[in-house]
Amino acid sequence: MADKIKDAKIVFVVGGPGSGKGTQCEKIVAKYGYTHLSSGDLLRAEVASGSERGKQLQAIMQKGELVPLDTVLDMIKDAMIAKADVSKGYLIDGYPREVKQGEEFEKKIGAPALLLYVDAKAETMVQRLMKRGETSGRADDNEETIKKRLDLYYKATEPVIAYYEKRGIVRKVSGNTD
Ligand SMILES: Nc1ncnc2c1ncn2[C@@H]1O[C@H](COP(=O)(O)OP(=O)(O)O)[C@@H](O)[C@H]1O
Ligand SMILES: Cc1ncc(C[n+]2csc(CCOP(=O)(O)OP(=O)(O)O)c2C)c(N)n1
Ligand SMILES: [Mg+2]
């Protein structure tokens, strides 16, 4: 069970909303064959299932707030275990969103080998998300929620980068693809 992923190679992928986390992960998957798990995608799949839990998640995500830590951590852990036999390593995209999430992950699953910090300017992120909102169908790609997601990123997630900087495992990449 959880033993299966005890020694797995783990890479956290962190960056602002629309910084390009998903895009960078796709490139890494193509090159290194790691298993890409996006916390946002896992949560949206739960919403799409129409479950009672999904409805509660939808309301939180629409506001640009963080869903409860245990919910997202359990989902990631289950998804990791499901891929344990075929996985060379994991890209955990969109997690941790706050220092506490990192600490709990390490207690329950294991330590990351690396934190990939996808860097982009706030202005770039907003522009991209507004554009993405035209076609994404995501309830949170609208001006009001984008602002809240950005604020929360600077407040809660940037400290995560500083936390892992101190451990010397942060690698910064540009989220610009051009
Ligand atoms: N690690 C997490 N902890 C709590 N909530 C999360 C987490 N990851 C995603 N979410 C929820 O899902 C939403 C969308 O996440 P994501 O797809 O990663 O978006 P973004 O485009 O902002 O990077 C977040 O705004 C939040 O409500
Ligand atoms: C003008 C324009 N440029 C780029 C895109 C494609 N695009 C939309 S959002 C985005 C940013 C990266 O998205 P994603 O990798 O999903 O970022 P994440 O939210 O996962 O960090 C890009 C490149 C677009 N739709 N329109
Ligand atoms: Mg994404």
UniProtKB/TrEMBL annotation:
UniProt keyword annotation of Cytoplasm present: yes
UniProt keyword annotation of Hydrolase present: no
One Gene Ontology CC term in the entry: cytoplasm
Catalytic activity: AMP + ATP = 2 ADP; CDP + GTP = CTP + GDP; dAMP + dATP = 2 dADP; dCDP + GTP = dCTP + GDP
Coiled coil location: none
UniProt GO MF annotations: AMP kinase activity; ATP binding; nucleoside diphosphate kinase activity
Subcellular location: Cytoplasm
Main location: cytoplasm
CDD domains: ADK
GO BP field: ATP metabolic process
Keywords: ATP-binding, Cytoplasm, Kinase, Nucleotide-binding, Transferase
Recorded family membership: Belongs to the adenylate kinase family.
NCBIfam families: aden_kin_iso1
Full protein name: Uncharacterized protein
Source organism per UniProt: Sinocyclocheilus grahami
